[in-house]
Design brief:
alpha/beta, Rossmann fold, 2 domains, six-stranded parallel sheet, 20 helices, globular
């Protein structure tokens, strides 16, 4: 099929590359001329596991190209995916859908054939109907336009895998023609046995927020348990194993740490909380707000543990040389939006520490967001003369690092594991003093 992807960011680029991998002829559209040029050269401006290789492969094959002229999309495609950003509005709670409507206003007048517009962006309930009305009003007279909402459920760091091999697809449709188009464009995925839920648009719109909000609740819940473990002298890692064995609960996504971040979970939890209030579901809103507050306080919890770790060395945060491992909000991506790791690094600097940040992929994006911090891409070099090391993002590079080879590099081999990701006993045997959130004395 001929496909366009409007908006080439953390959602649009992986989706465009995946559509090409499925055999479609794809054109991506973005307003940034420099970004389009880089993409057409096979260069990926973001990092996602497997994405640079997939992008280069299909740009080279001619199956995937990028442009800033949305007219090319209108003239080219039978299916148009809308993957533009929907950040939180100025009120801090609702989605700013200006880019969605802007994309429709630019695209609709240039449609040249019967087509389907497929929304991927996360939006508030009712958006599909408004988009459909706008598209029909602006499209050429007599032009048939279907609108379907097909929310993405990508995990950043796994966007390629989750697009090509998702655990489910959702299509919010109003007509049989819209459902037919979705089944055709995703035929390669559906043929592999991936289930599809065909719903009304309202259900599809709410499903994305409900899923991400539940993940946020799960993270905040286990972080609340970690705080209880810290106070009681219990081991949160063992509690995760005990809870996770229950099939009604499961351990997936239940990693204690310094909270969730990125471009999806924080805004989706806030927006879903606002929706609960608007719908009059006050008890649901109270529950969701509590999860937000727990997440917002995780940096303070980590700062307390760092203070305790330094005090055990007869030191304090002010004046301490602290190395922070991790800038991205999670491993597998260079996305630093609402990164707890960067928030913690900034809080340490504000408290008077001399901070150096290392990350395997996110140094460039982190430098733009927090230019006041010092950065290095040399992992062993990041430890030079450090009084304390903080693991803030659980990259495999840190989990697989050799504690014996690194123990002589810092001034003091003290490590605060804010993601409970390291084999503490292995590091202790190498001579490190380890502190982990929710595992006092372990």
């Amino acid at each position: 099929m001929r496909v366009s992807v409007i908006g080439c960011g953390h959602l649009g680029i992986p989706h465009a590359a995946a559509m090409a991998e499925l055999g479609h002829d794809v054109v991506g559209v973005d307003v940034d001329q420099a970004k389009a040029a880089r993409l057409n050269a096979g260069e990926c401006p973001i990092f996602e596991t497997g994405l640079p290789e997939l992008l280069a492969k299909h740009v080279a094959s001619g199956r995937l190209r990028f442009t800033t002229d949305i007219r090319e999309a209108g003239e080219h495609a039978d299916v148009h995916f809308i993957g533009v950003g929907t950040p939180i509005d100025a009120d801090g709670r609702s989605y700013d859908t200006a880019q969605v409507y802007g994309a429709i206003r630019q695209l609709a007048p240039h449609l040249t054939r019967a087509c389907t517009i497929v929304g991927k962006s996360t939006v508030t309930v009712g958006t599909t109907a408004q988009v459909a009305a706008l598209a029909q009003r602006l499209a050429p007279a007599g032009q048939a336009v279907e609108v379907v909402w097909n929310p993405e459920f990508l995990r950043e760091g796994h966007a390629v895998e989750d697009t090509l091999r998702p655990d489910r697809l959702i299509a919010g449709v109003t007509t049989a023609e819209g459902e037919k188009a979705i089944r055709a464009v995703y035929a390669g995925i559906l043929d592999s046995g991936v289930p599809i839920f065909v719903t009304d648009p309202q259900t599809a719109e709410l499903a994305k927020g409900a899923a991400n909000t539940f993940l946020g609740l799960k993270i905040s819940y286990i972080n609340a348990v970690a705080d209880m473990c810290e106070a009681a002298g219990a081991d949160v890692s063992e509690i995760v194993d005990i809870l996770g064995i229950d099939p009604r609960i499961g351990a997936g996504g239940m990693r204690p740490g310094i909270g969730y971040g990125g471009g999806c979970l924080p805004k989706d939890v806030r927006a879903f909380t606002a929706s609960a209030r608007q719908l009059g579901a006050d008890q649901a809103a109270a529950l969701l707000l509590a999860a937000e507050r727990i997440n917002d306080n995780r940096v303070l919890v980590a700062m307390d543990l760092i203070t305790v770790a330094l005090a055990a060395e007869d030191a304090e945060v002010r004046g301490a040389r602290v190395t922070v491992w991790g800038a991205a909000f999670k491993p597998g991506t260079n996305d630093v939006r609402e990164s707890p790791a960067l928030a913690l690094a900034h809080a340490l600097q504000q408290a008077g520490a001399v901070v150096t940040v290392h990350d395997p992929q996110a140094i460039t994006t982190a430098m733009h967001r927090n230019p006041e911090l010092d950065f290095t891409d040399d992992l062993p070099g990041s430890l030079a003369d450090a009084d304390l090391v903080v693991l803030a993002t659980e990259w495999p590079e840190y989990q697989q690092a050799d504690p014996d080879a690194l123990v002589t590099l810092p001034a003091n081999p003290v490590l605060v594991d804010c993601r409970v990701a390291l084999d503490a006993e292995r590091w202790r045997l190498a001579g490190w003093r380890i502190h982990q959130l929710g595992r006092p004395g372990k």
